[in-house]
Amino acid sequence: MPKLKLKPIVKKIIAIILVVIILGSIGIYSYVKIKKQKEYETTYDYKLTTLGYDDNTIKIFKEKLQNKDLDYLLKQEKNDIYLNIISDKYFIYNDFYEYLDYYAENQDKTIREIVERVNTNTDKPYYEETNPTDTSKKELMLVNKYYYLDSSYEPENIVTIPQTYAYGDLGSQKVNETTYNAFLNLWNASHEAGFYLMVNSSYRTHEKQEAVYNEYKNSQGTNYADSIAARPGFSEHQTGYSLDIFEKGHSSKTFEGSESYNWLIANAHKYGFILRYPKDKEEVTGYAFESWHFRYVGVEAATYIHDNNITFDEYYAYFVK
Ligand SMILES: [Zn+2]
To answer: How far is the CA of 230 from the centre of ligand 1 (A)?
Structure first.
């Protein structure tokens, strides 16, 4: 095979072309690399990393927050509080800054307490910012010191509880039909377990609540009245979904800790009822422990609340509202 002979000028041209290609490639490679780095430096991943957050934390921030919130975090020093709050089981995005504000003034509280208080509005004073409750939620309507019923509200399908199950004159104890039917199932199950439950208080009209509250207020002042009774419109008894229940022979003083009370705590949710004002939740419900006050919320909500040890107030904020 004859050797290919190139003229020196051709060789030179080829060499120059090769050099240009190599240098060009290096240039393009460097340019792309620098550009990519510059682009990366504009991302939240990079900026949050330089603040000291790890990849997993950044991933959660990006999942649970919006860009304006990430911008806010970039203006703050690194702090574990953000991830801790976001990671709470009942974190509500719209309340993010309210959690932070409440935490700033209550650093002795746990994250769960911070989120729980904000979710239930109890980071704010009682009766100051109040809203009419959404009665279309029916058995899931919330009535507490922040949500009220209009004076004109009356429950649908009110029925009289027979004296077999209720104290007082016939016709004095009423409740809505849904709650009554659920109560009968609860009553039958408790009776089979050997107990005899009695309803001590049930549906209360706005006028009745007003009379009760004003009596306390006029004799002992607003603070005392607020500590012992709901203001008119703010009583759950006006919903028609609440019942005060004792076992026959017991009173509000002796019911707690009785076998029938323990049975109710363990079983009421199966029939759609919850203990509305539990012992360890006074600050969240706004009410002292009431061993007798049960509220119908339906089996699904009652079972969740029972199994997860949260209040209806927080259940409402997270699942209903
Ligand atoms: Zn009650």
So the answer is: 10
| Banded pLDDT at 4 (limits 50, 70, 90) | low
The per-residue DSSP string of 65-98 comes to: S-HHHHHHHHTSPP-HHHHHHHTSTT--GGGHHH
pLDDT at 47 over 60: yes
Q: Residue 20's pLDDT band (boundaries 50, 70, 90)?
A: confident
Question: For strand 242-247 and strand 197-201, is the pairing parallel, antiparallel, or unpaired?
Answer: antiparallel
Structure tokens at 97: 């800054």
The answer to whether residues 238 and 149 touch, using CB atoms and an 8 Å cutoff, is yes
Return d(Cα 187, Cα 162) in angstroms, integer.
13
Q: Are the beta carbons of 287 and 119 closer than 8 angstroms?
A: no
Ligand 1 centroid from CA 237, angstroms:
6
Is residue 290 part of the annotated active site? The answer reads: yes
Phi, psi of 26 (to 5 degrees): -60, -45
Helix (H) or strand (E) holding 247: strand 242-247
Annotated active-site residue in 113, 154, 210, 290:
290
CATH architecture under which domain 131-320 falls: 2-Layer Sandwich (3.30)
What is the 3-state secondary structure of 124-159? CCCCCCCEECCHHHHHHCCCCCCEECCCCCCCCCEE
How far apart are alpha carbons 125 and 146 in whole angstroms? 9
How many angstroms is it from 236 CA to the middle of ligand 1?
Answer: 7
Radius of gyration of the chain from Cα atoms?
Answer: 33
SS3 258: coil
C-alpha 234 to ligand 1 mean position (Å): 12
Please report which helix (H) or strand (E) contains residue 262, including its range.
helix 259-267
The answer to pTM > 0.85 is yes
Instruction: Give the domain ranges of the chain.
Output: 1-38, 44-119, 131-320
DSSP 8-state assignment for residue 118: H
Task: With both helix axes pointing from N to C terminus, report the angle between 96-105 and 111-119 in degrees, rounded to the nearest 10.
Answer: 120
Measured in Å, residue 197 CA sits from the centre of ligand 1 at 15
